[in-house]
Amino acid sequence: xxxxxxxxxxxxxxxxxxxxxxxxxxxxxxxxxxxxxxxxxxxxxxxxxx
Length: 50
Known about the structure:
Radius of gyration: 22 Å
Largest sheet: none
Number of helices: 1
Organism: Methanothrix harundinacea
Protein name: Transposase
Number of strands: 0
Strand content: under 5%
Helix content: over 70%
């Protein structure tokens, strides 16, 4: 019984880390996307001013 609980706890911890990793990757992707949009916006503004 103890062994089974231990294995389940390990799995829960693993899944928790996996979900945190996905959330972290999503936040990084979101940040990179925002940076790309800002660069594009600055480029369009400079073309519009020229």
